[in-house]
Amino acid sequence: MRPFAEYKLKVDPQGCFNKGKLLRISEAPTLSGEARQADLSNAYTPSFGLMGHESLIMQQSDIGAIADSVKNCLRCGKCKPVCATHVPRANLLYSPRNKILATSLLVEAFLYEEQTRRGISIRHWQEFEDVADHCTVCHKCLSPCPVDIDFGDVTMNMRNLLRKMGKKTFRPAGAAAMFMLSATNPETIRLARSVMVNIAIKAQRLASDFLKVIGRRQTKAPPASVGTAPIKEQVIHFVNKKLPGGLPKKTARALLDIEDKDYVPIIRDPSATSAETEAVFYFPGCGSERLFSQVGLATQAMLWHAGVQAVLPPGYLCCGYPQRGSGLFDKAEKIITDNRVLFHRVANTLNYLDIKTVVVSCGTCYDQLQGYEFDQIFPGSRIIDIHEYLLEKGITLKNAGSFLFHDPCHSPMKLQEPIKTVRALLGDKVIQSERCCGEAGTLALNRPDVSTQVRFRKEEEIRKGELQLREMGGLGPKENIKMLTSCPACLQGLSRFGEDLQNGLLQADYIVVEMANQILGDQWLPDYVKKANAGGIERVLV
Question: pLDDT above 90 covers what percent of the chain?
Fold first, then answer.
């Protein structure tokens, strides 16, 4: 530090430049005092001291906590390379570093306006929401951050504040998706799913064909966004890549007739299991059960194949993460509390099964269920992803083919590097494709302009992966590429890249579905449903 301090005193004897931030020298500006490394005591933070307890906004909201959570930012920019919304050649303005700068300035503006005008301008709330919108809540910025700021958590708190203050913009598509994810009544889910699959998605796919030329122009060079794009532009963003078609006609529970929330379904092969056979608790989650029901059914079919008893929750349940990620903290807490009470009842009813394993098929479910304290519900239990569970059981494929693998932002595979697990399951001809798929829960519905920018970056990675796979010689020059994932939202997001390859098509699927196809045969789904309905389901009143 000494040579630096000497030079600093020479060129800036009055200490005007970044005073107290680059170094601290005791009292007199000479080297007679000790030159020490600066701390964060003089870093810029909103001037809360000017407001005291008079500020209504501080009393009514969590804005002070939001500002406090980002105050230690060093502006180093190490978060930029991993941020999904930091997309060179599309948008450079919304890295976590820049969003923290914007948040600090907005909080300062909020407090100034609150003191001087007794009211915050609508424009500042819109800017605040724009910052919160530009986040996929992947939490990847936490790892490289030297001061442990997780802007994913900050984003959720910002969205929650907007909701509490009544400043959150109503977006019909996102609200419809959240309604379907939060619903528990079978008739309501059936109706919502029918409208979404048979009307909304079909209309989007038709519009995508109709506006194909304009949409392609937009995806090749996405416009940078500062604030929400105009309505006309948002519509094109929404249809520039097709939503997946050919979705299952019914939910997994409807096919197995286990929609009644008063009964706990226990699914097992009666010819190969008994009451003493190992039992696992499988939490399907929203996407694996309601929209992509083949994922939930494939998980059940592979558990059946593994020779274990699969206990499912009674009725349609959501883990609460989609609500929390959207800033609906109150609704999320209610869902979590209700679920935990219900699971305790299930554990008491089925205490004879001695459940030691909770299986999930979704990363956000895994992250949310960790807070459920399952080790107290089912004493001594652990949570594990279905793919890692199958690997533990020795159920794998050798040389299953050549695949791209998309590891979700919320990866459910926690025991080792996900790519190692996937290669152990499917063979060595698997290449990982980096970057976010652009779906990110309801991001693609709420902010399709941001989603287009994220997908632009992902498309580059998919093309690189295609080139690598073809160079490996595992695929023909015109053969389709199959990309596998382990997240329902990512399955939807990856399906939208179907026509973007140089040669052939991109086919997105779930790892466990691919395993079911190769181990159980092409007709695994109807075969499993038939076997389960023919005496393979025990319904226990809870």
Answer: 70
Identify the DSSP state of 258.
Answer: -
Same domain for 100 and 217?
Answer: no
DSSP annotation of 482: E
Q: How many domains does one find in the chain?
A: 5
pLDDT at 118: 65
User: Identity (one letter) of the amino acid at 350?
Assistant: L
pLDDT of 231 above 70: yes
The DSSP string of 74-120 is: ----TTGGG-TT-BTTTB-S-SHHHHHHHHHHHHHHHHHHHHHTSS-
- Residues 372 and 301 occupy one common structural domain: yes
Distances (CA, A) of 323 to 183, 329, 368, 452: 12, 7, 11, 23
Rounded CA gap, 450 and 468, in Å? 28
Asked if residues 109 and 123 have their Cβ atoms less than 8 Å apart, the reply is no
Radius of gyration of the chain (CA): 26
Domain that holds residue 537: 252-393+521-541
Whole-angstrom CA distances from 216 to 116, 239, 338, 443, 486 are 48, 10, 45, 20, 28
β-pair partners for 63? none
**Does residue 127 lie in a domain region?**
yes
Identify the band that residue 53 occupies on the pLDDT scale cut at 50, 70 and 90.
very low
Beta strands 430-433; 382-385: pairing state: unpaired
